[in-house]
Amino acid sequence: MNQSDAQPLANYVTCRCQYCDKGIEFDASTFDKGETRTVPCPHCGLETIIFVPQQQSVPPVIQQSLPSEFAEQKTAVSSPDAQMTPKQFSDFIGQKRAKARLELATAAAKKRGEALGHVLLIGSPGSGKATLAGILAKTMGVNLKSTSGTAIERAGDLVNQLTSLEAGDVLFIDEIHRLRRIIEEYLSPAMEDFKLDIIVDQGENARSVRLNLPRFTLIGTTPRKERLTPALLSCFSIIENMDAYSFEELTAIACRFAKLLEFEIDRGVADRIARSADGTPLDVLRRLRHVRDFAHVKSSSEVITADITAEALKMLFPSNETREANESRAAIPSEVRREVWRRDGGRCVKCGSRENLEYDHIIPGSKGGSNTARNIELLCEACNRAKSDLIR
Q1: Is 39 helix (H, G, I), strand (E, B) or coil?
Q2: Domain membership flag for residue 227
Q3: Distances (CA, A) of 126 to 141, 177, 279
Q4: CA 267 to chain centroid
Q5: What is d(CA 218, CA 266) in angstroms, rounded to the nearest whole number?
Q6: Are residues 209 and 268 in the same domain?
Q7: Among the listed residues 117, 161, 159, the one whose alpha carbon sits nearest the alpha carbon of residue 136
Q8: How many distinct structural domains can be found in the chain?
Q9: pLDDT of 204-225, one tens digit each?
Q10: Which ranges constitute the DSSP H helices of 261-370?
């Protein structure tokens, strides 16, 4: 028998009924690429659309709208920071309130055998939102698929992401506030009802087809929830703000990162790096790596000392930025001054005086100190003048 005479082998796949959501099994080998058919559902008896699911191919209108980079989903390559990323809640330092809420939600969802509700994480870049998303997926024991608001340019991009999900999977959309409004019109009903309406064919033959999606979890991130439309914001059942990291937490994070990077630092070095950072774990990691690189090149010692750290951190500031400019009251943001005032109770942290108070950098800016609340304290004029510069 000639190869051309050979009959194609049966390739049975399942497409869900758009009405009863039960699976309809059929032979996909008899379908042309992108073909759709109307058949009676063997379960509910209603006429429904079947097509080869996205894992096999994509319906024609969807396929036409997909950019080439989304035609095939490739396995993401692990980032260089993958080894630094906590894999479970117990390894994640800080954010106690948010962690407690999310741990409770995941435990309840697993106990009921349900998908986790949609989650919105609000915070600055580098504060650990993506890390928490990964921990949530791992805790639930499901797959995590990641994208961003800027990467989803057309409806077909979103369709490709949603139809590739399995029951319980997590779709992580970083910077979800940057989604186009037309994309939100598709995403909101998909999040609320787990249904997706698409247009099949074109012109006179065009018709709307409703696809039933598996119950998935969407985790979005944004710096401010006000940047989301009310319709999209209402789709999230869990909304958590990332709290500011305390100085102690950032110091502990620096120690953890150093251990994972397999080099030794003492508490004083971790303290200085934490105070110089912008308040996020990501910046702590960046500065820690810079200090390590500086030490390996400039010093033969295997131990990173406070002096080496101070010299390394100086390189991160412009040469024309003087100590006076760094330490001036005007250089401290007003919101930071208010936070420090509330935290220190409007009194000198040394003697308790309420007279002639000044904002003082614990680590001077010229030594790598930052203009963040964790590096600034209230001192009276007398205590500030008497204070000796212990950072050499």
Answers
A1: strand
A2: yes
A3: 25, 17, 9
A4: 29
A5: 41
A6: no
A7: 117
A8: 4
A9: 766 777 888 999 999 999 998 8
A10: 267-276, 281-298, 306-314, 323-327, 334-344
Report the SS3 class of residue 156.
helix
Q: What CATH number corresponds to the domain at position 121?
A: 3.40.50.300
The answer to whether position 64 is within a domain reads no
| C-alpha dist (Å) from residue 117 to 88, 110, 128 | 19, 11, 20
- Beta-strand relationship, 303-304 and 264-265: parallel
Question: Over the chain, what is the mean pLDDT?
Answer: 79
118, 174: one domain: yes
Q: Please check whether residues 35 and 46 belong to one and the same domain.
A: yes
7 CB burial (10 A radius; 0-12, 13-18, 19+): exposed
List, in sequence order, every residue forming a beta bridge with 361; answer none if it has no partner. Answer: 376
Q: Kindly report, residue by residue over 359-388, the tens digit of the pLDDT.
A: 888 877 666 677 788 788 899 888 888 875
343-347, Cβ contacts within 8 angstroms, sequence gap of 24 or more: 343/373, 344/377, 344/378, 346/378, 347/378
Contact between 51 and 15 under an 8 Å Cβ cutoff? The reply is yes
For 89, which DSSP code?
G
| Residue 354: domain span | 324-392
pLDDT in tens, 111-151: 999 999 999 999 988 899 999 999 999 999 999 999 999 89
Q: Which residues pair with 111 in a beta bridge?
A: none
What's the Cα-to-Cα distance from 268 to each of 88, 254, 319, rounded to whole Å? Answer: 28, 11, 25
Is position 159 within any domain? yes
Give the integer Cα–Cα distance in Å for 290 and 288.
5
Q: What is the pTM of this model?
A: 0.64
